[in-house]
Specification:
It contains 24 helices and ten strands. The chain is an alpha/beta fold. The protein has three domains: 318 residues, ABC transporter type 1, transmembrane domain (ABC transporter transmembrane region fold, Up-down Bundle), CATH 1.20.1560.10; 167 residues, P-loop containing nucleotide triphosphate hydrolases (Rossmann fold, 3-Layer(aba) Sandwich), CATH 3.40.50.300; 63 residues, no CATH class. The strands form two sheets. Strands 6-7-8-3-9-10 form a six-stranded mixed β-sheet, sandwiched between helices. A four-stranded antiparallel β-sheet has the order 2-1-4-5, with helices on one face. β4 and β5 form a beta hairpin. The longest helix is centred in the middle third of the chain and has 53 residues. The radius of gyration is 35 Å and the shape is elongated.
Length: 618
């Protein structure tokens, strides 16, 4: 992709609008609260009780202080110096304060525990759902956007939603209870709240939607920032980046995107500051105006000193509590929008329909394709067109053709990583769509072109081929290593089979050819009836390839094997060679038969031989 095309893609407009309607918001809230309840109901109940306690505490304390002041004034006026008149109020205040102090610590404990439970639940749900999706989902750009948004701290957003909801409930209860206290003194107080609270809540909600919308449409650009950072810091790419001096270019692209994010956020911060300042000034002036009225009434004897003192303290607390309630409500609503990303991801369904499935009584590895056609999503040209092929049990078939001929697509369809658009593929006479997916996967061992390089021990890297059977069976792992001719290589490693491979967590890495040998051994670890090898020797030198294929017949005995390779020394060992061109089968036969036909295979073989001779002469 050229720099101009990358820049164009970065600035592409979003394809899917953000849905922020109130009905959808309420449904998301309901879903989130139900999930929270099902995760840990006792903790949820405990937090609700604590929320209620915190909500009524300021009003209860204000009521106690009011009673205490009035009782003290009355005692002074009567000349009584006994503490008995104010003792009940002191004891009530002590008890309420102790309850509030303990509940604060209980709230911290419950929130921390619920956060951990939700983090475990949601992260596990995301990973489990991702494991259910098929390859086609991960190759769809739209689904990739959904996955990217769901990965952006979904558990954190969920926990913050719960916390903001609790804070909002606490402050709403506090606001209502404080208004009740003030209305018992001056009913006109309620007239001040409506004209300020509702417009400010609406302002904060619009600001929250703006912030979420901005984040929502950053998903692709955030992927680009991660990509640029990974190219600069990844072990696999750092050498080339240095040699090509790409660092200044990649850093500039990274900085441009981050600067764009900063400038967008700065506007939101300024709007939030301006709106909050206006609300603070207006409500403060309004509360002071009505407090002046209360002072005048107290001077005329219509209110007590306790009323005046409590009104002063409560109005100051009420303004702050009201603002906190509005901010917490708007924040919870914004987090609900982020939760919609998680809901959208969990709603993604695999493209391949999976049923309970049939399990054949015999396992021989017989494969048949009948008039199979397939086109990748988003592509106009078919990758396969009308392919028919029968592979006998135990037969070794090699697929040959130029890049893009459809070889890898064909074996991916056989492994049911995709379903064909037309035609059928059968294993043991059963259509793959009828088979149990668990059974099908257990019968296939696959070495991909981009084979796995697992950050694990050498033993585990082999055992992963059939981990349920081999992960804790070192004897079986070593037996497979001997068959695949990697035992001596592993024994020469610093800790032998216990050597941690890869640089992410260990200090010992392998060459590309050594990693490929481990991948081939992993493929042979599975007791599968069908073995698929896609360029299994591409990273091996000539000697290593020769040694591997000297063992090839022993390794594949009793298995149906499909082999993809550009090395004719490899494919010539196959029982049958299938030549593909532009998604179709154009030739079929043994190595000698195809050479005698002087067709596509012979042309490719002769070209290969000329290139080989030219290399030897050099």
């Amino acid at each position: 992709m050229t720099s101009a095309r990358i820049d164009s893609h970065l600035n592409a407009s979003p394809e899917h609008p953000v849905v922020t309607d109130i009905r959808g918001l309420l449904l998301n809230m309901r879903w989130a609260l139900k999930l929270t309840w099902s995760t840990n109901a006792p903790l949820t109940v405990g937090l609700l009780v604590i929320t209620l306690v915190h909500g009524v505490f300021p009003a209860g304390l204000a009521w106690i202080v009011r009673g205490l002041i009035n009782a003290a004034v009355k005692a002074l006026e009567s000349g009584t110096k006994e503490i008995t008149t104010i003792l009940p109020w002191l004891l009530l205040g002590l008890g309420l304060t102790i309850v509030e102090a303990v509940s604060l610590r209980a709230n911290k404990l419950f929130v921390a525990r619920l956060h951990d439970d939700l983090n475990l639940r949601i992260t596990s749900d995301i990973l489990s759902h991702a494991a259910e999706l098929d390859v086609a989902c991960f190759e769809d750009p739209h689904v990739r956007e959904i996955i990217e948004r769901a990965q952006q701290d979904a558990a954190g957003h969920f926990s913050k939603f719960v916390q903001d909801t609790l804070v909002a409930n606490t402050n709403v209860v506090q606001t209502v209870s404080l208004i009740g206290i003030l209305m018992s003194i001056e009913p006109l107080i309620v007239l001040i709240l409506g004209p300020f609270a509702f417009p400010y809540l609406l302002f904060q909600w619009r600001l929250a939607k703006k912030h979420y919308s901005t984040e929502h449409f950053r998903a692709t650009k955030r992927r680009w920032t991660s990509y640029f950072a990974s190219r600069l810091m990844s072990q696999q790419s750092v050498a080339e980046v240095k040699l090509l001096d790409l660092a200044p270019l990649l850093i500039e692209k990274f900085r441009a995107l981050m600067a764009e994010f900063r400038d967008q956020d700065r506007k939101i911060y300024l709007r939030s500051f301006a709106g909050g300042s206006v609300f603070a000034v207006l409500t403060t002036v309004a509360f002071y105006a009505i407090f002046t009225w209360i002072v005048m009434r107290a001077l005329r004897g219509a209110l007590t000193i306790g009323d005046l003192a409590i009104f002063a303290g409560v109005t100051s607390r009420l303004r702050t509590t009201l603002e906190k309630a509005i901010l917490a409500i708007s924040s919870a609503m914004e987090e609900t929008l982020h939760i919609s990303n998680l809901i959208q991801f969990l709603a993604v369904r695999p493209r391949i329909a999976v049923s309970a499935g049939v399990v054949p009584s015999t396992t021989r590895g017989e494969i048949e394709l009948k008039n199979v056609s397939f086109t990748y999503p988003g592509s106009r040209d078919p990758a396969l067109s009308g392919v028919s092929l029968h592979i006998n049990p135990g037969e070794t078939v090699a697929l040959v053709g130029e890049n893009g001929a459809g070889k890898t697509t064909l074996v991916k369809l056989i492994a049911r990583l995709y379903d064909p658009d037309d035609g059928s593929i059968t294993l043991e006479g059963f259509d793959l769509r009828e088979l149990s997916l668990v059974y099908l996967q257990s019968q296939i061992s696959f070495v991909f072109q981009g084979f796995g390089r697992y950050e694990a021990t050498a033993a585990d890297n082999i055992a992963y081929g059939d981990w349920r059977r081999m992960l804790y069976n070192r004897e079986l792992v070593e037996r497979i290593a001997l068959l695949a001719d990697v035992h001596d290589m592993i024994k020469d490693m610093p800790q032998g089979y216990d050597t941690m491979l890869g640089r992410m967590f260990g200090e010992y890495d392998l060459s590309g050819g050594q990693w490929q040998k481990i991948a081939v051994a992993r493929a042979f670890a599975r007791d599968a009836s069908l073995l698929i090898l896609d360029e299994p020797t591409s990273s091996l030198d000539v000697r290593a390839e020769y040694e591997l294929f000297c063992r090839f017949r022993d390794l594949t005995r009793g298995r149906t094997t499909i082999l993809i390779s550009h090395r004719f020394s490899t494919v010539s060992m196959a029982d049958r060679i299938i030549v593909m061109e532009r998604g179709r089968i154009v030739e079929s036969g043994t190595h000698h038969d195809l050479l005698a036909q002087a067709g596509t295979y012979a042309s490719l073989y002769n070209l290969h031989q000329r290139q080989r001779r030219s290399t030897l002469l050099e």
